[in-house]
Amino acid sequence: MRILASVSPGEVRVALLRGERLEEVWVERPARPDGVGDLHRARVTALAPAMAGAFLALAGGETGFLPESEAGPVRQPIAQSVQEGLVLPVRVTRAPQGGKGARVSARLTQAEQARAAAAPPGNTPTLLTRGPEATLRLGRAHQGAEVVTDGAGLAARLRAALGAARVTYSPRPVFDEALEAEFDLVAGPEVSLPGGGRILIHPTPALVALDVDAGSAAGTRDPEAQRRVNEAAVAEAARQIRLRQLAGPILLDLAGMTQKRRATLAEPLAQALAPDRLARLLGLGPLGLFEILRQRIHPPLHEVLAGPLTPGLAALRQAVREAAARPGRRLALRAAPALLAALEALPGALAEAAEAAGQPLQLRPDPTRSWAQWTIEDASHGG
Hints:
The protein has helices spanning 78-81, 110-118, 134-141, 152-162, 177-186, 225-243, 259-263, 266-273, 301-304, 309-325, 337-345, 349-357, and strands at residues 2-8, 11-18, 21-28, 39-48, 53-57, 63-67, 87-94, 102-105, 126-129, 146-149, 167-169, 190-192, 198-203, 208-213, 248-253, 279-284, 290-294, 331-335, 362-365, 374-378. By secondary structure, the chain is an alpha+beta fold. It folds into four domains: 2-33 and 133-181, Nucleotidyltransferase, domain 5, CATH 3.30.420.40; 39-128, CATH 2.40.50.140; 188-301, no CATH class; 305-381. Helix 6 (225-243) runs parallel beside helix 8 (266-273), helix 10 packs across helix 11 and helix 10 (309-325) packs parallel to helix 12 (349-357). Pfam families: RNase_E_G. One of its GO terms (biological process) is rRNA processing. Its cofactor is Mg(2+).
């Protein structure tokens, strides 16, 4: 097992690999953490007995929801656990989603209780400590895994937490071309299957649909052709669910096959999902769709990567690479105004790019481009 963490302006991308096989993908923007694991001093603002919980005010004007099952060591009606105006320490257990606030818990570890007790007293909602970043979470979950990063600051933090022997700092980028290509594929809406066919991935606000396209196998006379495609799809679907952090209700529609034949793939699908502790197979529904439920903790990858910020950060990575290849060259980023605005709104991203490149990157808005289009130019050529 290896954990590779690629640090670039405004972003940290993390890969968990077993041999050369990519098993987990994480993309984090340190200036905008998802909040999972954060320890807050929060204030109860409203009880919601009908929802079996209470709403809390968190630091930064955010709202959290405390289920009554997480309000104390013993579950009891929420009104018997907390009262409006009560200030208490809580840990964020699930990131905000769909316009709803974070899910929190008041059931803390002894170490968390000690940190909360050591904080200066007060009634104002306060962030006491940040939760662990993805590289640290993976390092703790996979004790035997080697950790390699090209970020000096990240390497120092990880050595302090995991031990110097486990963490290697690389002065060169830790992602090679093959891994960069895999990250690009995981961000896309489809994945090819070995032997032909593909899986189309359609996230919606209510659920995620995975549709298997048999491709050329759909027109063959080989009765086992579709089964082979679907067997491959079952394994790859489970892998993609974990890679992309898909969550909530997930429906898998295999290619062709009768309901009876589809049922024979239930056990292989359950086995493929087994390593993912957050996912479970509910069964094969009456419409012939496999129904999977995966617990949501962190935002799924398609939410993290949505919008113009993602291509903007890719542009900063490219600018830093070009600056390293030709030191002293003045560079400019030509892109849609929405892309440039997204970079300017992310605290620290442009400053980090300027530090890595040795000088600021000129920004050249081009309204004729879509928000995903950008080019790195020689700034000496003017604008």
